[in-house]
Amino acid sequence: MSDMRLVVTGAAGRMGRTLIKTISETPGVALVGALERSGAADLDEDAGVLAGLPALGVEISDDPLPLLMHADGIIDFSTPAASVELAALAAQARIVHVVGTTGLSEADLRKLEAAGRHAVIVRSGNMSLGVNLLAALVRQAAKALGEDFDIEIVEMHHRMKVDAPSGTALMLGEAAAEGRGVDLKSNSARGRDGITGARKRGDIGFAALRGGGVIGDHSVIFAGDGERLTLSHQAEDRTLFARGAIKAALWARGQKPGLYAMSDVLGLG
Questions:
Q1: CA–CA distance, 166 with 176 (Å, rounded to integer)
Q2: Choosing from 21, 111, 118, 161, which is the catalytic residue?
Q3: DSSP-assigned beta bridge partners for residue 231
Q4: Which of 79, 187, 238, 248 is most buried, most CB within 10 Å of its CB?
């Protein structure tokens, strides 16, 4: 089979540059397009040079449709509005769309589901193998321990991150809620300040920390009477997200249209 032709959006950002470099090092994939927002300073620059590589002959563009019509897939770590727009275009082009964007609303997710009728979409709040295995362990632990153990999810990211809780924290919260057989939105506590009263039994708590250049630290704490279990993951290099996204794109090639998760890619159920 020929190399999978990929477009990277957010190409001038940290994650975009990491993706471009990782694609150049990965057999079976090739960069054929690089996207940035309209008015970005790096438009028309060579994507390879921007990523610290020799020139690749792929100029950064703000016009997605011509690129998608000549690609097999797009890897998208951008903004909710951009991801929704790209999902519709990927559906038109009948190509793979790997979405690592966080901060998506319920309305955004419904639009991705609609696009998934015609495109293969893989969406995850985190593309790493370790985090997705962590989510599976959290689901099992929540089911086994029940409401006798309080669940708190603590995450820390770099100072520039704009959404909280992180997409990964929410993914872990969903895993815990699934383990307990409850709805996360009705059983979560986000942010405590002042006289809050006693902790509500069954709540899944979130705490978001921001500072420095932290790529991503996540811990899920199961706190019982007399004992505490902590499941954690620390991301030390953005390359792990890029490798996961490329793995997802290769897996998605040839799948039936639909909205998939990273757990599908990794066979975690």
A1: 15
A2: 161
A3: 220
A4: 248
Contact 163, 103 (CB under 8 A): yes
Helix, strand and coil content of the chain, in percent to the nearest 5, comes to 35, 25, 40
Question: Hey, what are 145's tokens?
Answer: 């321990």
Alpha-helix runs per DSSP H in the chain: 14-25, 47-50, 64-68, 80-93, 106-115, 129-145, 167-180, 239-252, 262-266
Report angle CA 26, 28, 32 to the nearest 5 degrees.
Answer: 85
Coil/strand/helix, residue 28: coil
**Do the bridges between strand 29-35 and strand 60-61 make them parallel or antiparallel, or are there none, so unpaired?**
parallel
* 232-239 long-range Cβ contacts below 8 angstroms, 24+ apart: 232/134, 233/128, 233/130, 233/131, 233/134, 235/128, 235/131, 238/14, 238/15, 238/18, 239/18, 239/21, 239/22
Residue reference for tokens 């985090």: 131
Q: Cα–Cα distance between 187 and 184 in angstroms, integer? A: 5
- Residue 157 appears among annotated catalytic residues: yes
pLDDT in tens, 46-75: 999 999 999 999 999 999 999 999 999 999
Q: Which of 157, 218, 233, 247 is catalytic?
A: 157
Tokens 């079976």 map to which residue?
Answer: 28
Of the candidates 224, 56, 94, the one whose C-alpha atom is nearest the C-alpha of residue 152 is 224
More confident residue, 1 or 214: 214
Instruction: Please state whether the predicted TM-score (pTM) of the whole model is above 0.85.
Output: no
Distance CA 164, CA 170 (A): 9
